[in-house]
Amino acid sequence: MEKIKMTTPLVEMDGDEMTRILWKMIKDELILPFVDLKTEYYDLGLVKRDETRDQITKDAAEANKKYGVAVKCATITPNAKRMDEYKLHEMWKSPNGTIRSILDGTVFRTPITIPSIHPVVKNWEQPITIARHAYGDVYKSVELRVEEEGVAKLVFEGKSGKKEEVVIHEFKGAGVLQGMHNLDKSIRSFAHSCFKFAIDTKQDLWFSTKDTISKKYDAQFREIFEEVYEKEYKAEFEKLGIEYFYTLIDDAVARVIRSKGGFIWACKNYDGDVMSDMVSTAFGSLAMMTSVLVSPDGNYEYEAAHGTVTRHYYKYLKGEETSTNPMATIFAWSGALRKRGEKDGIKELMNFADQLEGACFDTLNEGIATKDLVNLMEGVTPKAVNSNDFIGAIRERLEKRLA
Ligand code: NAP
Ligand code: MG
Asked: pTM to 2 decimals?
């Protein structure tokens, strides 16, 4: 079989620990035999990040902007323990945070669903994608504890000299205070990323806030989404037969639970933090959750939602057999290759991505699975295998599909 040709390089961001091991296995077994792979390689492994004083992360993000599509392996976010373990010069920031701020993107998390693993919510038939706004609100707030009687005010001093002031509360005794903010620019970027992703995946977009209570702050989110939708996306949504639906957060929660799934739910920062863990847990396994960062100008970075699976890596280093699930990392590759194919008009590459995902489903539907999934499966007799054999089983089925 002739290998599939690519025209534009994919930005490849390598990573750490067990996922770095899986990364190589996936490339060697599932990509390189079939695709004449063109990548611009960035090693975001912690050793290289430290060596380059984290410049490599910024370079990788810039390359993502230049070429439009990246695939990323999970990476260690250093903490005090990692400082010792890797003898780091500095406690480098989370690469995901760095890349996100350079791309100004929104992260969309979608579970990979299979018939033998039933979501806790029995009427969910399709995956639900959560889009979390990743700027501001309580995550960038300032707080005060007050111990006595007094008045708290919210004050804005404009550069023009204009001053605005409102009383927050007249305290009769001790209490707590919080000040938070958001930016039109950030909300607008969030809106663009959400509408773009809905069009891309041909799914309805839901957005929820609490604008009945927060009549200026949350209302600004609603208004920006409405304005961006009307001006730039409505026609395309109507053409595709998909819907933009705004509702209150509490109404959204009730509707999500009663729904069949199959839509994107855009959430403010805090709501997204809470709801993404609820939704992903209800769908089954962290190892089956994919993640894509979409920038407002249409650049994409695909990855697994889980981390570097440190506990398995330490076992691997001791020579013990590991059964780490490569599904989300494989789907990061298929997602990126499909998007590259779409952008460059290479049908064979898009088809390859479909077949690769199909081969993964064939394998799981026959009950061949990594250990994390075995206990979750119903209606098949599961056979637990190690990562190597699992990837081998996928390769066999992929070859059959492509023949
Ligand atoms: P983790 O790597 O997601 O793993 C937590 C646990 O979840 C594992 O020990 C394992 O449970 C299970 N798990 C996760 N992915 C799995 C898979 N593919 N197959 C089978 N089981 C899987 O989270 P962590 O251990 O808290 O973090 C490890 C490192 O990853 C940290 O240094 C953190 O900074 C980094 N991290 C990176 C990203 C990213 O790059 N996007 C995201 C999160 C964390 P059992 O041990 O019970 O088998
Ligand atoms: Mg959280």
From this structure: 0.91
